[in-house]
From TrEMBL, chain A:
It comes from the Bacteria. This is Spore gernimation protein. It holds the Pfam family Spore_permease. It is found in: Membrane. Belongs to the amino acid-polyamine-organocation (APC) superfamily. Spore germination protein (SGP) (TC 2.A.3.9) family. GO terms for biological process: spore germination. It is a multi-pass membrane protein. GO terms for cellular component: membrane. Keywords: Germination, Membrane, Transmembrane, Transmembrane helix, Transport. The chain crosses the membrane at residues 12-33, 45-62, 83-102, 108-133, 145-166, 186-204, 216-238, 270-292, 304-326, 332-355. Its main location: membrane.
From TrEMBL, chain B:
It comes from the Bacteria. This is Uncharacterized protein. The chain crosses the membrane at residues 6-21, 33-50. Keywords: Membrane, Transmembrane, Transmembrane helix. The keyword Transmembrane helix applies. It comes from Brevibacillus gelatini.
Amino acid sequence: MLETGKISALQIGMLIYPVVMSTAMLSGPSLMAQQAQNDLWLSPLWASLGGFFSVWIAIQLNKRFPGMSIIELAREITGKAPAAVLGFLYLYVLLQANAVIVREYADFIAYFLQETPLVLIMGALILVCSLAVKGGIEVMGRTAQVFFPAFILPLLMMIGLVFPALDPGNLLPILDKGLLPSVKGAYIPLGWFSEMFLISYLLPSLSDRKYAATSAFFAVVGAMLTMVIVNMVTLFLMGDALDNVLFPIMDTARYVNVADFFENMDSAVMAVWVIGVYVKVSMFYYATVLGTAQWLNLTSYQPLILPVGMLILLFCFWGVPSVYIVKEAAAVAIPALFVLFFCFIPAGLLLWAIVRGKRNRTEEAESG
Amino acid sequence: MKWVQIVAMSVLACILFALEWPRLSRLPKRDKAAFITLLFVAWVLSMLDLPNLPGPTTFINALFRPLGQYLE
């Protein structure tokens, strides 16, 4: 096996929660508000169904093929040639998605650091993440565990401080135009929730397998509740103006002013976002590198880390003359690719494995 | 600007190579080939004027544009 490190079920939950939440923390509420208007608090509920589904598929596949990631088990199920094509597509999607995430991050940071070249912002992030990936799954699991409180607490504090200014009346009228707008608003978060399927790369390194489902389930529920709460808070604060705000959580934090002492909390939001995106990018980076090594049957994934990092950096620029191209990709193409590759194709593979009665018997005997 | 980019990316590729090679030289041929191919592809790509060339992002945007219009 390429990865010898072990992580706990709790660490899986703490790794996968920021993966879903970090992008949602940036512009989630306004993206959902553009479609769902004041019903945006319903959208995460619909989207989380996709999260439960992809987690369930990942765990079922792991039960049939313990110790294998999606790249390896595709080979067991479909045979060599189709699995090679499928594996390549998976690696491409991971690389592409990672480039879009890094580019979105850099565009957000460039909003503060206006003179800094984009390539430097991206390079710094990719360098840090490459060090985490080089440390392996254990380092990633532990950093995620250490950073987890720092990811949650500032958000809770911000909501607490902004609480007196909230106006729940903005919620009305509920379901004015029926359910359809809130379902349409669930499209982008559905892509984020599908990312939960990345646990497929973590499950083989899990030390306590029986808690995997519980931990992943709580991560989905946690992400869903956080999104619902954050959507409600931003809606209660901004009302109809929400869909025009670029970074709603930033502006909510900027609004906080208690006794002229608690001010400028937006820097805390920026710090939280950097932590979240670090976990997210390292997770995608790790999946790309490990997947490439498995796809090519290499003996180690370590040598691939730096060249793949350079490729991510180049993909951030390739065919992206302006920020609008990235916005379009993040709003339409990336969610579609995620739903396809992290929900439907794994579900198809699972169905195929069940119909053909395939499972990995040797590994099962080893693990008892 | 163009020349600065080419020199900087070449230096970066050399640094990555120098960093990895001592450990890589003990690994099988297949690992070496994968590393060198990836690094070479990245190095060649970095020579081009990437932001103004159609790339994978352009491709997926074009592929899913009808879906985007439906969602509008």
